[in-house]
Amino acid sequence: MADTLHAPSEDLHETLLDMGRRARAASAALSKAGQNGRTHAIFAMADALIAAQPAILAANQDDLDGGRAKGLTDAMMDRLALTPDRVAGIAASLRAVAELPDPVGSEIARWTVPSGLDIARVRTPLGVIGIIYEARPNVTADAAALCVRSGNAALLRAGSESLQSSIAIADALRAGLRKVGLPEDAVQLVQTKDRAAVGHMLTGLQGNLDVIVPRGGKSLVERVQAEARIPVIGHLEGLCHVYVDAAADPQMAIDITVNAKMRRTGICGSAETLLMDAKIADTLLPAIASALKDAGCTMVGDDAARAIFADMEVATEDDWRTEYLAPTISVRVVDGIDGAIEHITTYGTSHTECIITEDTAKAEKFFSDIDAGIIIHNASTQYADGGEFGMGAEIGIATGRIHARGPVGAEQLTIFKYVVRGTGQTRP
Amino acid sequence: MADTLHAPSEDLHETLLDMGRRARAASAALSKAGQNGRTHAIFAMADALIAAQPAILAANQDDLDGGRAKGLTDAMMDRLALTPDRVAGIAASLRAVAELPDPVGSEIARWTVPSGLDIARVRTPLGVIGIIYEARPNVTADAAALCVRSGNAALLRAGSESLQSSIAIADALRAGLRKVGLPEDAVQLVQTKDRAAVGHMLTGLQGNLDVIVPRGGKSLVERVQAEARIPVIGHLEGLCHVYVDAAADPQMAIDITVNAKMRRTGICGSAETLLMDAKIADTLLPAIASALKDAGCTMVGDDAARAIFADMEVATEDDWRTEYLAPTISVRVVDGIDGAIEHITTYGTSHTECIITEDTAKAEKFFSDIDAGIIIHNASTQYADGGEFGMGAEIGIATGRIHARGPVGAEQLTIFKYVVRGTGQTRP
ipTM value of the model? Predict the structure, then answer.
């Protein structure tokens, strides 16, 4: 496997500027390759990944040795580890992205104005996307494929723990691009553990980096949001609430709350706070809390909740602001839907919010008054996922307010241009 | 007229943070007011503007006196001056915005996924929009109305030359909001000439300012883009090209080129460079250049162009990068559509690009390969305007790559949220 990625230079900033320029040139070629060209490219990337499996596993062994020496936890080691099956799984994900509809060139809207001009709003790639991520090596392939699907060049910055694996994966993806005659610089990986590289990317590389997508923990995302001079698409926290209304179906309230909290506790769409309508707290909270407890969840609650279900620690102000990412939930009794909306407006992080009620008018009020990327009526918050939304793949869940919110798939990695067809019009 | 806007405090940063907090609260009220509530508010703002005409004209006289003392040019003084007719015109613009369709709450897309979830993508306001602008006092009203139409609170920072007029206009708009029971803080004006106020806005006011729209000259926009820690929707330059292809209709080429350059030379959609296909430069350039000359346009050209039409100065590299905003055009002979695309890719600013040809395949290639907000076939670049696009009003033409490109109207001042309707789904 040829490694044509350049090594970190003495002058890291110059290296990154050069990567940006080459990414810009490659993005133009990717854009011109057309939908079929990009589809073939992603299939070729998948094939090349399989072909490079020995090299990838060897590189991964280096990362695992380093991780062991560094004292990574078992959970982190597991996330880092690649096996033949996992490499095959990454290739399968690439093929799934290759089969997604290509958003570039599709008409979002088209209309005619009184001057006779025929105006169309047409999707076009964002350009060059920088992705900064932490340990998991599969992100290298997933993010690169989603960028290629949407006609964008990817500039990847992997976590230091998975750097060798990521280099091997990026090499394979670039080999796939070369095979179909597309510029390998459409996928580039920053080959250094120097954290200064992130800082250089955040300045936008002299106009050659259009957007940054941070994928990682809160400290990474906070750093990116604080320092970035270019737009950021990312999510800071998923502090998701489940509000159980007086008009809830009791069994549905139990099932959804337990699923929203406990199905997987470490993902951003897991519920962190249960809000109980005071009107039914007495009757329904004991059943929900028992079910949570049986599922292995610990609870902290306000005075009203603890008066109903004793097996709860006292919830502090901090609890309402904590994304546990663990089998713990905070519980508060609120004054109906208005109390729930007020709590969520104060403590929510614009990720995913859920109401359980049989009263459609209340659901519509919740939809209207809650400001979040995803608002769910009568289903688990754990559906906050690009795959479950029918997007096929996602690069993350956005909690900002610009460009895209919620799951960010291929379509959200595009912008539009106006294509105007005239017949000789001059403006009076 | 009650002036409830607060005066600049000793601590400008604290003042601005407080304005941001109040804007955030007001934006929630504006969002909840519904489409009819916002429509009534904008009509009331127009009525209040008419009622405040004496106060506005008196304040404008202060600005005019200040401008005269400062030695503003006649053109600048004219842009600054308000008359009863101009105030009526601003009120009419507000009423036109009140009659625009309200984008908030409209469904962009809706689909069902295999789990049975019904997913809708629904427009929602951006939140709080900061607008930083230069001399023209009418922007205060236009920008505020477009923000209210789209459910957003506006934080306005007027140019110092028009500050007194802008304060009087903002007072009137706020009186209109009060009259319909909406929070006046949905429209706030920064009441200081201290340039540090801009710097504070660019930091995002602790999360209470979602996006900055700069409207002004290149130095303002460059400062905003360099310093902003929050997203910017704005345009830096409109270096628009007209490419006359070998297959152009000759008379159409003459008419469009003269109109694109000379209808109004000071606007961002005016053409700055004429690219002539080498195949027809000999026969068609003399006619186009003569027509431009007759219209009062001076020309600079490359050697090939000057060999055909002698009355041109030599074009330097700088000329290809210059937005003249004046009756001057640069002329270059290029090698067909590929040469035109290469020139535009090198020198264009992603604003508006035009091809004149009767060959539809070439037009489609131009649409596909040019990366700009607006790409026009067989019509003048001067159609680059929200009104001409049927948007009713615009806050500017965006040349960035994120969120919106081209004319930014009410719809582009929104983002979306996902509204998910379930029937009790828990995720396996």
Answer: 0.92
